[in-house]
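Q: I have 273 residues here and want to know how they pack in 3D. Can you give me a structure?
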Amino acid sequence: MSLKRFYIFTGKGGVGKTALSLAFCSHLTENKQNCLYIYFQNNKIQAKNTNTADKQLEQMAMDLGFKTLGLDLMACSQEYIANKLKSENIAKWIIKTPFFQSLVNMIPGLSYVIYMGKILEMLVKDPTLTAVLDSPSSGHALTMLESTQNFNSIFKDGIIHEDTNLMLKELQTQDFFKLNIIALPTLLALHEAIELKTSIKNLANYDLEIFCNNCLNQFEQYELPDFLINKIKNENKALEEFEHLAQQEVPYNMGETPLQVIKELVPSMENLV
């Protein structure tokens, strides 16, 4: 399977997107790839994010040998305007106006189009780079792809139309983009993952797969308490029903710390390329 330039990890909250995204970046790094882990600091223009979780992410990535980038909407908006107007001073003034901030915060999906443009711009500038986006939830990933198409349709010409045209062209270039939908091995979670897959496929023929995380069936041969035996039975039932859609399984691991968990996940990441 050929390496893509841009990966998005998405799925419902709590399915392990961040751990898998970090493990995937570690896998790429071990294979001598120039990899960047990307996450959203916010999706509205606001004060600078001081979330301690961001610092923990950065430290783990540093320990694993790759870089991180937390995207801030105000900074990305300012950079975009400065590039278009060829003036950083004017861009700084524009993004500080209440009208502009309200406009960006109120228009559905505009923040994600700005973020998409930033990521694709980085990939064009550095042909050696592989970007891995840890999307906050399935809704964010869908909105990002949906909004790029919607803005392209709404604005029939002009800068936004031209920019979204370039974005869509890049995303649909062969071997450029892949979306990994992460789910847990339950009937409800897989139904939701399939609905997301269908919604995204209706937008364009993007390369995407569903992966089941935290699969316990590797422990079937051990003596286990009844609740785990029942859990594995239900898991196997779900995986059998959706075998043709949930092509890959990511095994549960026993790491005691977040860093250990990520390191133990790395050998399974080859399937997600």
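Q: Anything worth noting?
A: The chain has a mean pLDDT of 91. The first strand starts at residue 6 and ends at 10.
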